TrEMBL record:
Stretches assigned to the DUF3898 domain: 2-44
Entries under Pfam families matching the protein: DUF3898
Species: Paenibacillus oceani
Protein name, UniProt field: DUF3898 domain-containing protein
Length: 77
């Protein structure tokens, strides 16, 4: 945090299994996240709220399964 306060344009560069990642150090923890998943490291770039909301709005709605009429539950006892 101290580095970013003094030099907000400091680059963050690292490699993950042959892939080079470049970002601004100020973006780490805000829009770039590193996590461990099943013993491996993964790099996460979260989607914006607008993108997630659009996916939820555009998601097709599954029709509800019809319920059987009351009394026709076909229970064997």
């Amino acid at each position: 945090m101290r580095i970013v306060e003094q030099q907000p344009e400091v680059d963050l560069k690292f490699k993950l299994d042959g892939i080079t990642v470049r970002a601004k150090l100020a973006d780490y923890g805000e829009s770039v996240h590193v996590a461990e998943l099943n013993g491996r490291y993964v790099l996460l770039h979260p989607e914006s709220f607008e993108d997630v909301a659009r996916k939820l709005i555009d998601k097709p709605v599954r029709p509800a399964s019809p319920l059987p009429p009351a009394g026709d539950d076909e229970v064997p006892w």
